[in-house]
Write a structure and sequence with these properties.
The complex is a heterotrimer. By secondary structure, chain A is α/β, with parallel strands linked by helices. Chain A has a single domain, classed as Rossmann fold (3-Layer(aba) Sandwich), CATH 3.40.50. Chain A contains four helices and eight strands; from the N terminus they run βαβαββαβββαβ. In chain A, helix 1 crosses helix 2. The two termini of chain A are 15 Å apart. In chain C, helix 4 crosses helix 7, helix 7 runs parallel beside helix 8 and helix 8 packs parallel to helix 10. In chain C, strands 1, 2, 3, 4, 5, 6, 18, 19 and 20 form a nine-stranded mixed beta sheet that branches. The chains are: A alpha/beta, B alpha/beta, C alpha/beta.
């Protein structure tokens, strides 16, 4: 559905610059990339995560493992929806025990997706720590959850949504402020 | 994409897109089954009752595992005969069980149409785990998942079902599902075990195993109920094996990479020889693994969708 | 239901099904007889007056194949409730089959039924069993049964399997010119079947009963009728092959007749798609081809009679999984409506020919007196409004059972009165 665009908050170059900055912050705070694994949350956390891993490799000349997590089955809102969301494959081809897990998502909003992701991670193993990277934090938290690395804080009102567009998924890179669709209100 | 019906009574009328959704979802669940903790909290707080009016250890265990892997509460109601004879009707039984607040019913019954009958008695979602000679949809779905996994596709494949077609709900669902997915289907067995007018489904029919062997990419070898012989539907196990038993020697007539499925349990040496069942042609154990994933997918896809929230 | 003293039916169209004539007249009934037919001054008439403009007056309808369940299963139907359903359906006579508990294979049960029906408007004319206990082994005391009031013999529901027993039964019944009615079904071929064997049974995964199960026994009965000279009547014929056998046998002069039910004309196997147990009957609903053959059989006179095979079953018995449900549906109240709506409107038969098969033809087969609509004759007739339609509401049936496949259907032909034995019944609209 086409939603009305209110503003372009970040353009293509901005998206790329933000990811580079986030990569630097992750390396800096962890004093390198030892024991770091990156896990992207479906859907858009995957593309951002992959780019983050590339940047880290460019900077540190070291590959860090990358995995994909689908949290559909851990969501708390799935029984409240009319339609069953499509489950996709999680693909984490490494052990997360005692690792510094960097969870990547596009937008941090209520915190429920990250809550589900944390549960899913706990079923997969016992990481040394879990750190969260998001491209945008739009506020309105419903859970005691915060991001460790934020691309940009964009305060929004209830009638607004943040739309992250990525080349891999949508053919372009940008972050838009759009009007929330009717049924979401 | 979502399923059209709240129930899974059969593959009759289930679209290609829906079957594809179930198979795709099953693949996600296969991944979960390989995790150290092969369990997700998706159906936490939901209660599933497994209502088995016919003995079936395998299907029941497969469903029960699928339910437990999804963290549902499960209750088993197993009886060798329907309790109608004891004065309680099936309707009473199911209403009593539903009064204990159940969300889903998995039912196996010797009478065709019983799952449909149950949907008229209760609000819970109903999954058919085999009704009479009618359908056994999750078996056909797991067969198709196994074929797709091994060969990479279903459309355009030639699948032969071998054996007792007339009494087989596995055949009933496989015929419907495979045709919907664009495969060609051949039925092979003695005339006495071939249902009337089955060619009107759009399948090939042969009484000669050689024809099926030369034609097929996949052989789904059905279990022969040995008591059929007592009813005179075939003269002897010996002749059945001679005419329709799959042996390594026979397989020389088949395509080199033919895939062999069997819904289990196998009568070794009757419809299928041991060395075939345990050979590289066989995907029988994959079928068992896939059975749990497919049933998780079906349970998941039918569990949500609270109709009261529009 | 109340007694008639003086009754005037004004301006009614009298349908003479024997002479195939219609005339408009006033009819006066005194007690149990027709007193006068012609013009009557209604203003000075002292009794009950029915203005019957747009009504048809027919010789009382008779259903030669019903199950009244009494004695034995009074929870499903009684003679009284069955008669109430019969009256509502426009019938003044019914022939209950002997599959009661105890079975109607002895004079005591015949007398029991006659006695319980004494006060009814409807003539209840029992059919007795061919063999003791309907077990297919020893023939019943047919002559005594006939003398005590049985009008025919049948082991309906459990047909006589042994050909020699059937031969003896025919020979014996033939001595007193009694009709043998056979439910034709080869028990081995039909074993475990729950519906017609065909594409639909394969689709539904339900064991089938092939046409051949009926055909074989029809052929057997024709052979034995030819051998013994006994009059044989095939109950609820359903398969096209059977119709053809009867047609050829009739041409040859074999004393054979047959009946068809409205449900075999109206529904086919495809209608079972939802496993509706109210469409589970024996013989099973067949294919469209069979229906066409049944219609042809009606048209050319191969099929003599239309009968309901009214078979009440309790809700508890029918509201179960398909394979567990008993065969049969109720039909006394709906048969006339289905015949007018489906058989007459589809131009299979004219109204006269259709009603003949519900009134005159069965009585002739059973050697019963045919009601004449003439002055001085016993008043035995049905009054209907043939053009009016009504919607079947199974909750309002007079039967004790509810297993009707016609619920919610719109039928044509409303019964406004039945008269017999000096009694009149009119529905409360």
């Amino acid at each position: 559905m086409e939603q009305k665009i209110k503003a372009k908050i970040i353009d293509a170059e901005g998206v790329q610059r933000t990811i580079v900055r986030l990569a630097h912050e992750v390396i800096e705070r962890n004093r390198g990339v030892r024991d770091i694994v990156v896990i992207g949350l479906r859907t858009r956390g995957v593309a951002i995560g992959r780019r983050l891993v590339e940047k880290v490799k460019e900077i540190e000349k070291t590959s860090v493992p990358f995995g994909v997590l689908d949290v559909t089955l851990y969501r708390d809102d799935f029984r409240r929806r009319l339609k069953q969301p499509v489950v996709q494959v999680s693909d984490i081809p490494f052990d997360i025990d005692e690792k510094q897990v960097i969870l990547v998502d596009d937008v941090l909003y209520t915190g429920r997706t990250l809550r589900a992701a944390l549960d899913a991670l706990m079923d997969l193993g016992r990481p040394a720590s879990v750190q969260v990277v998001v491209l945008v934090d739009r506020g309105h938290r419903e859970m005691p959850i915060r991001a460790d690395y934020v691309g940009k804080n964009i305060p929004t009102s209830v009638g607004e949504e943040i739309q992250v567009r990525l080349k891999e998924e949508d053919g372009e890179d940008c972050v838009l402020l759009v009007e929330a669709p009717e049924e979401a209100l | 994409m979502t399923l059209q019906s709240r129930h899974l009574l059969g593959l009759e009328g289930v679209s290609r897109e829906e079957i594809t959704l179930i198979l795709d979802t099953s693949e996600s669940f296969k991944e979960i089954l390989q995790r150290p903790i092969p369990k997700v909290p998706t159906l936490r707080g939901k209660t599933v009752v497994n209502l088995f009016f016919e003995p079936s250890t395998r299907t029941r265990i497969s469903f029960e595992l699928a339910e437990k892997r999804l963290t549902a509460d499960t209750v088993n109601f197993t009886t060798s005969s329907s309790s109608v004879k004891k004065g309680e009707t099936l309707k009473d039984t199911i209403r009593n069980i539903e009064a204990m607040n159940i969300d889903m019913v998995v039912v196996r019954h010797s009478a065709a149409g019983t799952p449909l009958f149950l949907t008229r008695c209760v609000d819970a979602a109903v999954i058919n785990a085999g009704d009479g000679m009618h359908e056994h949809p999750t078996q056909a779905l797991l067969d198709m998942l196994t074929i797709r996994e091994r060969i990479g596709k279903i459309a355009g494949l030639k699948v032969a079902l071998i054996g007792d077609i007339a009494h087989s709900r596995v055949a009933g669902s496989n015929i419907r599902g495979l045709l919907t997915m664009g495969a060609e289907v051949m039925l092979c067995g003695p005339k006495t075990l071939m249902p009337m007018f089955v060619e009107r489904f759009g399948v090939h029919v042969t009484f000669h195993l050689e024809e099926a062997l030369e034609w097929a990419d996949c052989l789904n070898v059905l279990r022969i109920q040995l008591e059929r012989q007592d009813k005179g539907l075939f003269p002897s196990i010996r002749e059945y094996h001679k005419l329709y038993g799959i042996t390594l020697e026979r397989l020389e007539q088949a395509k080199r990479d033919v895939v062999i499925l069997h819904p289990g349990p196998i009568n070794r040496g009757v419809e299928l020889d041991s060395d075939v069942a345990d050979s590289d042609y066989s995907v029988i154990l994959n079928q068992v693994t896939n059975g749990v994933a497919v049933r998780m997918a079906v349970l998941y896809l039918l569990s949500g969708g609270n109709p009261s929230i529009e | 239901m109340k007694p008639i003293d003086q009754l005037l039916i004004r301006n009614v169209e009298i349908m003479d099904l024997v002479g195939r004539q219609r005339e408009k007249a006033d009819v006066v009934i005194c007690g149990d007889r027709i007193d006068k037919i012609g013009q009557v001054d209604f203003e000075t008439f002292a009794g009950q007056i029915i203005d019957a403009t747009d009504h048809l007056l027919l010789p009382g309808l008779i259903d030669m194949h019903v199950h009244l369940r009494e004695p034995g299963r009074e929870d499903e139907e009684t003679i009284e409730s069955g008669c109430a359903a019969a009256m509502a359906g426009g019938f003044t006579g019914v022939c209950p089959m002997p599959n009661t508990e105890p079975c109607c294979d002895n004079q005591e049960v015949v007398r029991f039924i006659k006695k319980h029906a004494e006060t009814q408007l409807v003539d209840v004319l029992p059919i007795a069993a061919i063999t003791k206990g309907r077990a297919g082994n020893e023939i019943t005391e047919m002559v005594d049964l006939a003398r005590s009031g049985a009008v025919a013999f049948s082991d309906d529901g459990s047909p006589v399997r042994n050909n020699a027993v059937m031969r003896r039964a025919m020979e014996y019944a033939g001595m007193v010119d009694m009709l043998i009615i056979d439910h034709c079904e080869d028990a081995d071929l039909a074993a475990e079947g729950h519906m017609n064997e065909g594409e639909m049974s394969t689709r539904l995964g339900v064991a089938g009963i092939p046409n051949a199960a009926e055909e074989i026994q029809v052929a057997r009965d024709i052979s034995l009728a030819r051998l013994t000279g006994c009059r044989v009547h095939i109950a609820h014929i359903s398969a096209r092959e059977s119709v053809e056998l009867v047609r050829r046998a009739k041409q040859e002069g074999v004393p054979i007749s047959c009946e068809v039910t409205p449900h075999h004309l109206l529904f086919c196997e495809q209608d079972l798609v939802d496993y509706d147990t109210n469409l589970k009957m024996n013989p099973p609903l067949r294919s469209a081809q069979d229906i066409a053959a049944l219609e042809d059989g009606l048209k050319d006179g191969t099929i003599d009679v239309i009968a309901s095979d009214h078979a009440p079953h309790s809700v508890e018995e029918k509201d179960v999984e398909f394979a567990a449900a008993p065969f049969g549906v109720i039909g006394l109240e709906t048969i006339l409506g289905v015949v007018l709506h489906q058989i007459v409107d589809r131009q299979v038969l004219s109204m006269e020919e259709a009603l003949y098969r519900l009134s005159i033809a069965p009585r002739r087969l059973l050697k019963l007196p045919v009601p004449q609509i003439h002055a001085g004759e016993p008043a035995n007739f049905s009054l209907i409004k043939p053009k009016d339609t009504w919607i079947v509401d199974v909750k309002k049936t007079r039967s004790r059972s509810r297993n009707s496949p016609y619920d919610g259907m719109t039928l044509r032909g409303v019964v406004t009165a039945v008269v017999n034995k000096g009694l009149i019944w009119q529905p409360n609209f």
